[in-house]
Amino acid sequence: MALEYLYNFGLDSRDVEEIAEYIDEEVYTELGLFEGLVIENIRYMKDFGVSNYAQVVLKFPDIFLRDAESFKNIFSKFDHDDLIQKVEKNPAVFKKMVEFVDNN
Amino acid sequence: MEKFEFNGERNPELFSGFVSRAKDSLATLIDNIKVSIKDYEERIEDTTKEISDNELSREKCEHEITKMENKIEVIKDAIENVESTYKKIVDAYSSTSKGETKELYSEIIDGAKANCERDVEKNRSEIARLNSDIEAIKNNITEFTKIIDDLNKNLDNYNLELYKYNKTLDYMIKEAERIGGDLEEMSAKKEIPSKKTETKAPIKKADARRTSTSKSKDTEEDKKKTIKASEVEKEEVVEELKNPIDESLKQIYDLTGYNPARKEATEETKKEDAVKDNLEAEAKPIDKPIYTDNLDSLFSNTSSDVKDEGNNTSFLDVDLSSWESILNAPNEELESSISNEVKEDNSENTVDQLLSPYGTSFKRLKGLTTDKISYKDGKQIPFDMSAEDVIKAINTIDGTDLKKMKTVGPEITLLRKVKAMKEGNL
Known about the structure:
heterodimer, A: mainly alpha, globular, B: mainly alpha, Helix Hairpins, 3 domains, about 75% helix
């Protein structure tokens, strides 16, 4: 399994299987191939203080397929505490934040 | 003879050639980039003006619509007034009319009604016309908005291109400066061995000239005179070298024994020397200029310091001393003279230089990836990313890639391109 490294971030085999089921082939291969990049980004989110980062990985793994600089840039656009609070309440908010940053 | 070594086995002349060529190429590239930047700046200026014009036109349209809508309101009020007047007339004449008066009043009412209907009809037609005009203007506004959106998109692209060109230009200028520095450094490094290898040349040459007139007068005084004459020559040449731009070229000329200004004269001198050499077997015709900055140290040595008189073929005399031929040699020829190891080093250096504007390096890109592409069905293909792959990816960057780089970043965009290449999709 190419996504085994996600076990290190609180996901179990069922989570990884779930991810593999619903994402398309392209994202799957990229998550496997660009392991270093994805790990870097998940670590950043974790260190930023988002406690339910594993939920974000589970629901929106494709978000982590971007440069570390670009990923950090998303966090810099919002208030630290507000971001954590909102993402912890609903992980889908982070997806909206990414879209907002990408479109502006 | 002292073997000249520089950075391993690489020959300094070869590298001088490389560096000079790189410097020239960079200069050409910088010029081209400057032209492109100017072109994009003009395009941005034109597009901005066009956007501004279109926005002005759109504003005018909006203003026109407002005016027309106000006019419609006025007409509506007029219609109401006409109808209200008619009503009043009808009420007034209907309630009081009797007999013949009633007939007369009926005519007045009918006349008023006809007038009212005519006015109302006229005003309604005017409203309809105005509404039609408003719709047409709204259409124009939509068109203007579309044009403005398109122009804004173009403007974004131009700005992006301009940004990229500016960044590349900065990088190129830095590289050009660095290469310029390298060139000078190489030349400076070459001076040291050239002292030893060339020292014998002027002495022998002086000897040759002296012996052609009087062989037996090879005294210390003669040597001193030669030294003085050379020192005068040195001062003159040093004066000439004041121009820092020419300095590097002069150094190369001196180091390689090539001087375009003296080329013809040198050939003449060579012929004369050759005749003299026939007379003196021990002297050899060497007509290469001494590297003038080193004259003091050269002539402070005694002639016994010069080793290996028989082998006076310095590194300048081997075929590589023809630096012009190196510069003009086709790339394949130059490439073949470099070991594969050097090629690999160069690939990595090149890719790092190419990646530098994107704020990354080949090593980092390698570190972000695994060594295989895994598919959902369990199939795997190896992913051995080489510097050449990355160079290829960089060379195929297009506008779409630049847009992607703007959102997700250059590293993943380049990695995706390499992946696509490996999968045969690019």
